[in-house]
Amino acid sequence: MDEVFVCRCEEVTQEELQKAIADGAVTMNELKRWTRAGMGLCQGKGCSRLVMNILAKSTGQSPADVKPAHYRNPVRPMPINSMIKEEE
Amino acid sequence: MSSKFDAVVVGGGIIGISCAYYLTLEGKKVLLLEKGEIGEGASTSCDDMILLQSKRPGILLTLAMESLEMYKKLAQELPVDIEFESRGGMVLIESQSQLSLMEEFVRQQKALGLEVDLLDQGEVRKRCPMVSPHILASTYSPLDSQVNPMMVMRGMLREATARGLKVMRFSPVVDMELVAPYHWKVTTERGEIYETSFVINAAGAWAASLGKLVGIELPIKPKRGQIAVTEAMPRLGKTNFWSADYIVMKLNPDFAKEREPVLNELGIGLSMSQASSANYFLGGTREFVGFDKGVTRTALKLILKEATRFFPVLRKVNIIRTFSGFRPASGDGKPFIGPVPSKPGLYIAAGHEGDGIALAPITGYAISSMILGKKLPYDLTELSPARLTV
After folding, report:
1. Do A80 and B300 lie within an 8 Å CB cutoff?
2. DSSP for residue B289
3. B117: which DSSP letter?
4. Burial B270-308 (b: 16+ CB within 10 A, else e)
């Protein structure tokens, strides 16, 4: 079977996610930390629902019961230049 | 399911996992209790460095050097890629007064066997052309290394669970009772009771509240460290970087006067390391704010300003994530590693502050050896919980 990429930013495949679940990852945070899915430029905006579904299916939970991973500031990538500007 | 174990490790961060790993390899029946998710404390809210150069010559430098050798082995042995690399590190020096102090520091470290040298301005520029022209000199050690703590935990857990380690997440410990010497009862919030000969308090920043359950006052406090993560980007030099200003201040407090007071209030010292995913970690702060896990605009701005002062090119780079974590600060800068004399069977492996990743393998190995009654080739008296006078 062709590789299925779930997180495109970090190029994480479905197989890699399944392996992390086999290693014991039971939460979205653990799955993120063990595979980097959702840690790239878009910070999981693209793939988190897919990842949640994979985790739910593999662990026998309903997708609605899977808690999302932590979201971190900034909401969008932000140039350092604009972050260090002095306020008027 | 049996609820009797040889050892119960409380704390599923990198220190607790390492203790559980080495004990399991020795054939012990071990239970790992974690109050939440694996590594949800400091072990996943940190950077990736195994830093030798910042250590004062003494037991911590000795242990860090030992731990580094263990990581080299783990990189071979563990069933996952722990992204171990020895990229080396440079401490960037900005003034003549910093340089004089660092010369002496480097001399002491060399005497202890650490491979470290000073580079002049030309050599610094040659190795990292992007560095700000005001940098006067730098130290260099080829030994400073890095590792991905999340993958270390994953690898150790996979290996240890295959050999019988039991892991319970979302299981805060609410009671610990010394029934008789080397006979403990540990109760979790879920109401499960486990019997064990040994209990290891590896609860990091939460170690003090666990200590209270058995009447021990541990001086371990959460020290918040804020870090910003850049987008994946090309390398700024072969090594990772630190600013000398924070290190010299630790060596000679008079240097505090040379810095903006707010930098000292927030305990800011610049550290820059590039993960194997090519994102840079830009850190960090050292703040006592209890368990407030936020990031602050003031602190991030100062960290990023420091980063651009050393590498102006960073101005154009994007920040994609910021976070903070609680380093378990022990008060005297040294972790507690060893048995509690008044509580037979109770061990402490906590208080590593910013050295948890660097010292995880050696801490787990030391605790396991002590429990098994094996002799260690170094004297850990200085780190003994006996210094608590409990």
Report:
1. no
2. B
3. E
4. bbbbbbbeebbbbbbbbbeeeeeeebbeebbbbbbbbbb
Chain B residues at the A interface, defined by Cβ less than 8 Å, are 37-40, 44, 80, 150-151, 154, 157-158, 161, 167, 169, 230-232, 277, 295, 300-301, 304-305, 307-308, 314-323
Cα B247 from Cα A51, distance rounded (Å): 42
- pLDDT, tens only, A52-72: 999 999 999 999 999 999 988
Contact between chains at A78 and B318 (C-beta distance less than 8 A): yes
Rounded-to-integer distance, Cα B165 and Cα B21, Å: 8
- CATH number, span B2-44+150-219+332-387: 3.50.50.60
Nearest to A83 among B38, B151, B304 (CB): B304
Establish if A80 touches chain B: CB-CB under 8 angstroms: yes
pLDDT tens profile B74-115: 999 999 999 999 999 999 999 999 999 999 999 999 998 899
Within chain B, all domains assigned CATH 3.30.9.10 are found at: 89-142+221-330
Phi, psi of B119 (to 5 degrees): -115, 140
Do residue B320 and residue A83 have CB atoms under 8 angstroms apart? no
ipTM, two decimals, is 0.94
In this prediction, residue A87 carries a pLDDT of 65
pTM, entire model: 0.96
Q: Using the beta-carbon criterion (under 8 Å), do B317 and A29 form an inter-chain contact?
A: no
Query: In the prediction, which pLDDT does A1 show?
Result: 55
Q: Which of A14-23, B49-58, B176-185, B198-207 has the lowest mean pLDDT?
A: B49-58
Digit-coded pLDDT (tens) for B143-153: 999 999 999 99
pLDDT tier for residue B389 given thresholds of 50, 70 and 90: low
| Alpha-carbon span B31 to B10, nearest angstrom | 8
pLDDT at site B232:
97
Q: Which fold has domain B89-142+221-330?
A: D-Amino Acid Oxidase; Chain A, domain 2 (3.30.9)
Nearest CA in chain B to A37: B277
